[in-house]
Amino acid sequence: ILLAVGYDRLTNNNELNEANSHINIHRISGTLAYFVEYDGVEQMLRSFYRRSCTYPYYRNKEIAMACVQDVINGVTSVERKVWIQRQLLHAYEAFKTTECAVLNHYFIKDYIRYVELGLNEQILLQCIEDMQKILPDIHHAALGFGEETLIQKLLQDIITQDESADSTDSDDYDTADSESDGSDSDNESSSSAAATDEDTNPNENVLEKLMNLKLSG
Q: Which is nearest to 10 in space by CA: 79, 54, 71, 95?
């Protein structure tokens, strides 16, 4: 939940957006969206990366990394209780006037009370330590959607298209050269034919000139 709130704050300039803050937090948090119960920190962190990098708003691993670092910094600070409650209150305000208001009843209000009255800081810090250890591996690992295969296929398609384009350009040049040679031959043939006609009727041009002179006179 804290990671989802961090995503919403980061993408909305640390402000509450009445139009989409409740959707951001609800959809990115597996706990709030599908009541997921994680077996450990690694599974939770991997889920956050997968959900944030496929969410139709900002899809970027660097944003996911920034959210994780923000949670690590907040939880390891001296005022960790105040920081956590502030994040939960952000979620509460985002949910309270929307269709997600039921999540305040089932989750957010109880977590706020838990942080104030029963938070085990030792266990929380151990979770943060585990998160710091596995973060580099998860950040650089594939998301698990077969994206590596898709990238390889995309690169192969690009290479094939480039090769086809080069082949087409070469064919065009050859055709242009052939057409140029043909047109030159046609021009030469036409010139030869015209010269032959002039040789055949040497007086035709003279007669036309005389007729033109009479008309102009």
A: 71
**pLDDT tens track for 101-121:** 999 999 999 999 999 999 999
pTM reported for the whole predicted model? 0.69
* C-alpha separations of 83 from 70, 89, 162, 167, 183 in Å: 11, 10, 54, 62, 82
Q: Give CA 25 to chain center in angstroms.
A: 21
Are the CB atoms for 104 and 93 separated by under 8 Å?
no
| pLDDT tens, residue by residue, 165-204 | 776 666 555 555 555 555 555 555 555 555 555 454 544 4
Q: What is the distance in angstroms between the CA of the first residue and the CA of the last residue of the chain?
A: 105
39 and 46 Cβ atoms separated by less than 8 Å: no
